[in-house]
């Protein structure tokens, strides 16, 4: 009786979601591509260079393939329950008790990653353009903008990504083309022989964790009226972000060498900072900073929306926007748990993201749920034929 009532209420909530907020496949592409490209290029090239050296670009290729695979699994899992978010359909797949455990695990993931994004953003701003500005001011500025945009719903965030997306991708690609004038094959060679597949895969793990955050699709497909139309755009969004990261890494190695790049905290930023084109185009690093800020803005807004909306669904709060003023200060506090850059950008990826978030949240749980859901759907189909 209680379960039937819950299902009826669930159907009503699903209908409300579809009426209030909708995004198309094209918007889904821009959401994924813009939120992933900026931070992936800026923050993951250095660890790949340290591990895989001149073959770091091969590590990016492997990471891109894994990222697209995660997007594919997320899409196929969500398509089995159209119009429902992860918070809703996980209860139908594994039951209420196990479902709530999975939901809790994913909220740990989304809240912690959101806090780390804000912290990494503040540290980059302090290291590049605003060294004397208190970190709390930088984080609050981004958080308030994210609250304003997220309060309009997923449609507003999607439209922002649709408007800014082309400028972000062009702003990454054009400087890369201009930087290719210092290209040297000697920096690329030898390919593979000095590292081997094991080292190359190890070098791909930091990038895979960033591209793997497309697992957020398990919350976004509920807002796509025709979920099947969103699979290719979602995979293409991850693929484009991965491709730009591959090209960036390849050119960086070819132009300045892996040794110089491995010694820089933000190698892509430094490559563009010192680049000139016939003394006509200079100081393109300001363009990179602007592009990166917009990319972070899209990512923070999306994570903030998913965290707030999903929490409201989990707790049964109908007016989900009210939770924003509780989620925001909580995330703010989490952002100040790391004591310095090493803890937020080195220890967190190495000690938490790679050993736990990537294999469990991005790969293991989605594959498990997809397998169980497929088996159940086949069981229901067999019972229907009887």
Describe the structure.
- The structure is a single chain.
- With 386 residues, the protein is mainly α.
- It is built from 16 helices and no strands.
- It has helices at residues 2-20, 25-52, 56-79, 86-94, 96-128, 135-150, 154-179, 185-188, 197-211, 217-220, 231-256, 258-262, 267-273, 285-315, 324-335, 341-385.
- Helix 5 packs across helix 6 (135-150) and helix 5 (96-128) crosses helix 15 (324-335).
- It starts with a helix and ends with a helix.
- 48% of the residues are buried.
- The model is unreliable at 1-18 (pLDDT under 50).
Summarize the topology.
Elements lengths: L1 H19 L4 H28 L3 H24 L6 H9 L1 H33 L6 H16 L3 H26 L5 H4 L8 H15 L5 H4 L10 H26 L1 H5 L4 H7 L11 H31 L8 H12 L5 H45 L1
Helix pairs in contact: 2-3, 2-7, 2-9, 2-11, 2-14, 3-9, 3-11, 3-16, 4-5, 5-6, 5-14, 5-15, 5-16, 6-14, 7-11, 7-14, 9-16, 13-14
Task: Provide key terms for this protein.
386 residues, mainly alpha, 16 helices, 0% strand, disordered N terminus
* Structural classification: mainly alpha
Main sheet overview: none
**What spatial form do the alpha-carbon principal axes imply?**
globular
Rg, Å, rounded: 21 Å
Count of helical stretches: 16
Distance between the termini: 26 Å
Helix-strand sequence: HHHHHHHHHHHHHHHH
Instruction: Name the poorly predicted regions.
Output: 1-18
Query: What proportion of the residues form beta strands (DSSP E)?
Result: under 5%
For this structure, the quaternary state is: single chain
In round numbers, the mean pLDDT is 88
How much helical structure, as a percent, in the residues? over 70%
DSSP strand count: 0
């Amino acid at each position: 009786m209680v379960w039937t009532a819950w299902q009826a209420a669930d159907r009503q909530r699903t209908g409300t979601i579809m009426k209030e907020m909708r995004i198309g496949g094209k918007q889904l592409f821009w959401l994924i591509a813009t939120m992933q490209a900026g931070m992936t290029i800026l923050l993951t090239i250095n660890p790949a260079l340290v591990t895989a050296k001149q073959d770091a670009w091969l590590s990016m290729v492997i990471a891109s393939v894994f990222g697209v695979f995660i997007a594919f699994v997320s899409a196929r899992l969500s398509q089995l329950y159209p119009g429902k978010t992860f918070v809703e359909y996980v209860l139908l797949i594994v039951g209420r008790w196990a479902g709530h455990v999975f939901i809790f695990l994913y909220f740990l993931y989304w809240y912690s990653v959101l806090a780390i994004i804000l912290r990494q953003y503040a540290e980059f701003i302090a290291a590049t353009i605003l060294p004397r500005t208190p970190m709390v001011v930088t984080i609050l500025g981004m958080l308030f903008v994210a609250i304003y945009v997220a309060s309009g719903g997923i449609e507003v965030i999607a439209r922002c990504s649709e408007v800014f997306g082309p400028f972000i991708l062009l702003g990454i690609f054009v400087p890369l083309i201009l930087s290719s004038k210092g290209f040297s094959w000697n920096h690329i060679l030898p390919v593979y022989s000095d590292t081997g597949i094991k080292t190359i895969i190890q070098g791909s793990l930091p990038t895979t964790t960033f591209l793997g955050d497309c697992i957020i699709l398990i919350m976004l497909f509920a807002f796509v009226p025709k979920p099947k139309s969103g699979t290719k755009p979602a995979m293409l969004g991850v693929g484009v972000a991965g491709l730009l990261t591959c090209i960036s890494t390849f050119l960086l190695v070819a132009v300045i060498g892996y040794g110089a790049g491995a010694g820089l905290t933000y190698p892509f930023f430094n490559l563009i900072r010192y680049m000139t084109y016939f003394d006509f185009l200079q100081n393109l690093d300001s363009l990179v900073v602007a592009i990166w800020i917009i990319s972070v803005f899209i990512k923070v807004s999306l994570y903030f929306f998913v965290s707030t909306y999903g929490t409201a669904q989990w707790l049964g709060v109908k007016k989900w926007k009210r939770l924003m003023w509780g989620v925001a200060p909580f995330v703010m506090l989490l952002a100040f748990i790391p004591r310095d850059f090493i803890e937020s950008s080195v220890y967190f990826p190495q000690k938490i993201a790679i050993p736990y978030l990537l294999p469990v949240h991005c790969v293991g749980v989605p594959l498990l749920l997809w397998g169980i859901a497929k088996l159940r759907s086949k069981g229901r189909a067999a019972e229907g034929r009887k």
